[in-house]
Structure formats: C-alpha cells, structure tokens
Design brief:
single chain, transmembrane, Sterol_Desaturase_Related, 265 residues
C-alpha cells in the first residue's frame, strides 16, 4: 500500500461526514432508544396495580431477570456496530446521504412515511425468515428468550440480528438519498417503535396512535407470548393480508377496541 493511498484513506476518516453520518447516527440511535425505553422499563419494574388494566399480559414483567443481560447486549452490539461502521466507511461515504439543502416539509413527511412502510415490509419478510431453521435456532431465538417484555428488551438481540435490522432501517434513506437530518428523524421514530413495541402497556394516549394503523405494544407483545405470528414491526396490515396474526391477538384486540384502534381498510 503506497503512502499516497494511505494518506487518501486516512483523509476519509477526517471528513466531517464520518462523524456526523455513521458515528453520530449510531449515538442518536442508542441515546434515543434509552430515552424512550428507560422510563417505560422503570414503570414495568414498579408494575403499579393502578396501571394493570393497561398491561397486555397479566403475568409480572421479567425486568429484574433480564435488565442486566439486556444492557450488556445493548452495549456490546453498539460497540460492535461502531467498529463495523468504521470499517465500512470507505463504502458508506459513497451512499447518497447528504448535508445539502433540506427538502420542503411535505417531502420530508413523504420520505418518512416511505421509510416506515418500506422498513415494515422488509422487516416482515426478514422476520418471518428468522422463524425458520438455522436463523431461528441460532440467532432469533435469543430475542425470544423474553416473553414478558419491557421496553429495554427492544434491543435484546443476537449481534447478527442487530446488524440485519440496523441495515434494513437504512435502505429507505439510501434509496431516496435522504438529508442527514431526515435520517436522524427516522432513526428516532424507529427507536420509539422498538421501545414502545416491547413496553408491555397499551395506553390510549400513546402518541404512536397518531399514525392510523398503529396498534401499540399489544401487537408485538403477542408475537413474544405466542412465539409465532405478528411478524411486522410497526403496522399490522401485512399480517392481516397474509393471514399471520398471532394466535388470540384478534380476539384480544377486539375486546379492547376503545384503547386499541382496530385495523382500518
């Protein structure tokens, strides 16, 4: 390797986008997940009787058992991802994420909606694939060790699954050549979904219900309790279309219609 090539590669890591794109995005991802997850996790730890009517499962949460292991995996996976991002920067710097002029607000909104739907579609099929064969036995079964989830468990993953899910979240921004700030907004939304989907509570005032198709933590909680079905990440319409609702979920949802909006056509 010539000195000129070494100098060129070294220069790539001195570019401002190296710190703003992969590294700051990872920091925002971890920070916002903890911001969303920790209050919910504390609530599950206390498990106040006054909020029992909002719980998805009648069983106690497993916070005390799984908090330490979850935090350990969370830190390990993010540290490993930081190394992967450093090594992949020579390629990532060629992707169309940019710091140019921000698009109009309606373009940003359209892009965010596209990211949500595309990520959910991709996640649905990848998630279904992870419930078969080697991927289920050696990778996805790690996440399914926890059946009574709390919000912090939204990032309890085998490293390979963590890498796959993180990559899926970037496909939409890469396709549209998103502004870096739009990417950051999307990551915040994605981490809200991860925390809220595992929190174990269905509150009628949940801000996620601003999105018409969202049904709250009950949807993904049934995936953990039943182990099969409810494969999408955020929106249940794919499971409705493909007939893959988790056993008992529809009856539970319909019984709680005032708190959990039913699917809309």
């Amino acid at each position: 390797m010539t000195s000129d090539l070494i100098a060129t590669i070294t220069g790539w890591y001195h570019e401002p986008m190296f710190w703003l794109y992969p590294m700051a995005t990872l920091a925002i991802s971890l920070g916002t997940f903890l911001l969303f997850a920790l209050p919910y996790t504390l609530l599950a730890w206390i498990d106040p009787p006054s909020l029992a009517k909002y719980k998805v499962q009648d069983k106690p949460f497993d916070v005390r058992k799984w908090l330490g292991p979850t935090l350990g995996r969370l830190l390990f996976n993010n540290a490993a991802m930081a190394v992967i991002l450093v090594l992949s920067w020579p390629w990532m710097r060629l992707t169309p994420i940019h710091l140019g002029e921000l698009p109009a607000w309606y373009i940003i909104l359209a892009q965010l909606l596209f990211f949500i739907f595309l990520d959910d579609f991709l996640y649905y099929w990848v998630h279904r694939a992870m419930h078969k064969g080697w991927l289920l036995k050696h990778v996805h079964s790690v996440h399914h060790r926890i059946r009574q989830t709390s919000a912090i468990n939204g990032n309890y993953f085998h490293l390979l699954e963590f890498i796959i899910i993180s990559t899926l979240a970037l496909v939409g921004p890469w396709l549209v050549g998103a502004h870096l700030y739009v990417l950051w907004i999307w990551i915040v939304i994605r981490q809200f979904e991860a925390a809220d989907g595992h929190c174990g509570y269905v509150f009628p005032w949940n801000p996620g219900h601003i999105f018409p198709l969202y049904q709250g933590a009950g949807y993904h909680d049934f995936h953990h309790s039943q182990y099969q079905g409810n494969y999408a990440g955020f929106l249940p319409y794919l499971d409705r279309f493909w007939g893959t609702y988790a056993r008992g979920y529809e009856a539970w949802r319909d019984a709680r219609k005032p708190a959990v909006p039913a699917d809309r056509p």
